[in-house]
Write a structure and sequence with these properties.
Pfam families: Dpy-30. This protein is mainly alpha-helical. The chain is rod-shaped. It has helices spanning about 5-10, 15-40, 45-55, 60-110, 115-125, 130-160.
C-alpha cells in the first residue's frame, strides 16, 4: 500500500479517491475479513486491527495498535472485575441481613431486643472487631441460661411433689 497516493488524494477528484480506495484498501479489508471468518477469533475487532497493522506501511502503526488493544483488554478486564465486585458486595449485604434477622429472632426468643450498636458488634462490622467471637460467646450464654432454667423448673416440680 503506497501512502503517498493516499495522502495526495484528498485534494484530488473524489471519484479518483474512491477508485483508489477500491483498488488498494478494499482487497486488504476483504482479506482480513476472510481470515477472520476462517480463524473465528474471540475478539474480531482486535484481530482485524492486528491484521491491518501487519499490512500497513507505517512504522509506528503496530505499536499504536498494540497499545490500543492492550488498553481495550484492560478495560474489558476492569469492567468484569467491577461486575464481580458488585456481585460480591450484594452477597455480603444479603449475608449481613440474614445474620441480623437471625440475631433479632434469637433476641426475640430471649425476650429482649438488641440495640443497633450491639447488633453491629455481634455481626462483626469493622468498627467492632471480635464480633464473631462475641456471637459464639452469646450463643453459649443463651444455651447455658436455657439449661439452668430447665434445671430450676425440674427442681421446682420435684419440690412440689415432695410437699
Amino acid at each position: 500500500m503506497s501512502t503517498p497516493d493516499l495522502e495526495a488524494a484528498p485534494s484530488a477528484d473524489p471519484g479518483e479517491y474512491a477508485r483508489l480506495l477500491k483498488e488498494r484498501v478494499a482487497p486488504v479489508l476483504s482479506e482480513g475479513l476472510l481470515l477472520a471468518l476462517r480463524d473465528r477469533p474471540t475478539d474480531p475487532p482486535a484481530y482485524l486491527a492486528e491484521f491491518l497493522a501487519s499490512k500497513g506501511s507505517g512504522v509506528s502503526a503496530p505499536a499504536v495498535v498494540a497499545a490500543a488493544l492492550h488498553e481495550r483488554q484492560l478495560s474489558a478486564e476492569a469492567s468484569s472485575l467491577q461486575a464481580e465486585l458488585a456481585a460480591l458486595d450484594a452477597q455480603l449485604l444479603d449475608a449481613r441481613a440474614v445474620a441480623a434477622a437471625r440475631l433479632q429472632a434469637d433476641a426475640a426468643s430471649a425476650s429482649f431486643e438488641l440495640l443497633p450498636s450491639e447488633l453491629g458488634r455481634r455481626l462483626g462490622e469493622p468498627s467492632h472487631a471480635g464480633g464473631v467471637d462475641d456471637m459464639a460467646h452469646a450463643a453459649a450464654c443463651r444455651h447455658e441460661t436455657r439449661r439452668v432454667e430447665r434445671l430450676v423448673r425440674s427442681l421446682r416440680a420435684r419440690m412440689d411433689e415432695v410437699r
